[in-house]
Amino acid sequence: xxxxxxxxxxxxxxxxxxxxxxxxxxxxxxxxxxxxxxxxxxxxxxxxxxxxxxxxxxxxxxxxxxxxxxxxxxxxxxxxxxxxxxxxxxxxxxxxxxxxxxxxxxxxxxxxxxxxxxxxxxxxxxxxxxxxxxxxxxxxxxxxxxxxxxxxxxxxxxxxxxxxxxxxxxxxxxxxxxxxxxxxxxxxxxxxxxxxxxxxxxxxxxxxxxxxxxxxxxxxxxxx
Length: 224
What we know:
DNA polymerase, domain 1; single chain; 2 domains; Rossmann fold; six-stranded parallel β-sheet
């Protein structure tokens, strides 16, 4: 019998619990257009997913004051929340998956590069916070993904060894962060194709949502 108390699930939020990365991409496009910066939307999304605004904005706009960085970040996230609010809903199958994991006693965390405000917008706005024993956001780490800090901090908060954690992710940087943290990952294909995801080291499965995922099977196959 597997000791489920020593196992944990760590979920990315944007693009994993909700299918919203295209809305983030639109918000970035508007912000960049407002400031005269051109972008290839898909390349930008793939390159920046999982990273924090504090990392992305100076790279795109160059050196700036703390006040300017904050203003740009606030503008971008306001655009995102206003656009996503009418469409805000959990990705298919995730509620059932979280319910099953909770009933089995698996500890769960969210590890997201989002701001606290965006985390609350999703987890509280959709009543998802109740499923999670720990939440790690951009404010908890100095660097976002692909650095492993976000996942390692989450495992520490849960009191579970990294090798006992399964990560659920959508971003290439997130899969690399999981690998560096010593964790296996299951991919959600909201941004990248299953073929691309499955070619990455440490990724064991890829799905369009959670409808085909079974908690007991995941634990028995990958965390036993």
